[in-house]
Structure prediction request, 339 residues.
Amino acid sequence: MTALITLENVSKRFDRRDGSSVAAVDAVSLEVRTGEVLAVIGYSGAGKSTLVRLLNALEKPTSGSVLVGGQDLTKLSEGELRAARSKIGMIFQQFNLFRSRTVAGNVAYPLKVAGVGKAERDRRTAELLDFVGLLDRAHSYPEQLSGGQKQRVGIARALATNPPLLLADEATSALDPETTTEVLSLLRRVNAELGVTIVVITHEMDAVRQIADRVAVMEDGRLVEIGDVYDVFSDPRTAAAQRFVRSATHDRPSADTLARLRHQHPGRIVSVRITDEPGLQQRIDTAFRTTGTTAELVYGGVSEIRERRTGSLTYELTGNVDAALEALRADGVHADEED
Ligand SMILES: Nc1ncnc2c1ncn2[C@@H]1O[C@H](COP(=O)(O)OP(=O)(O)OP(=O)(O)O)[C@@H](O)[C@H]1O
Prediction:
């Protein structure tokens, strides 16, 4: 798969008032593949917004290069940058719609700026509003719309000039969970039906789970983990990714739940990772049976990511628990004793 965006060893430092400086983005190398949905996650201050501003050339890196569609953004003149930016659609948390323009006026605006004639503008605007399901609201004003509808207008407007790339900066953070799901499924259609590559910046792991093909985890300006969303969810490698996954999946007991489980169950509490490997349940049962261990299922959850099974089951084990754990691990089953 070819790369639409390549970041090579990109850093962005900002000077602070006290004379020190902060690396908002610190030596990040990253490829965004043509046609994928890549989610970039991280807590507040991790450097996500700065990364987006580097991708659309609103910031220049202190060092490193940013290639979009083979063009090094750091080497372009201001005129060339404007042209490059017009090939990148953007949507925002606060929608950033023009309040004084109608829905159709908002969507047509980038076409007007690009010098597209009225007839073609009207045709394209209607086509986009139809795509996002808002044709009947063409003459409404933004303030007459719900948050989800506003974001759908934002998406239509971002796509007006047919950009191959869409950047979504916290695009669902102001929406309730149900509306979030609607907007995310629209973005999935934008990707699948229009072939637009999408970079989603978010602190919401649930959004990642619903939309992304791959996920990149940022912490203190650095890219600490990147992988297929299934792999990162089912086997997060770094502490930062583990924290995020825990926040979105509730298949492992929380500290409170664990305390209660311990109170009710005197045996040892062990969580086993569930993946989509065939025959996994049978292998788990065999490890318990052959070691004479009694297993009582006390907690757990199994769900799907990208149509693949993932989750965790927590057992109270009594009997020869050490031998059971050894048998599980020897068979490649990931088992953690809860501490
Ligand atoms: N223009 C700036 N001047 C000085 N420091 C900045 C500037 N922009 C960002 N920073 C600093 O860089 C770091 C990363 O900020 P950034 O906004 O990119 O993080 P973020 O992950 O997007 O966080 P949030 O979700 O809160 O926006 C922070 O420490 C921030 O204070």
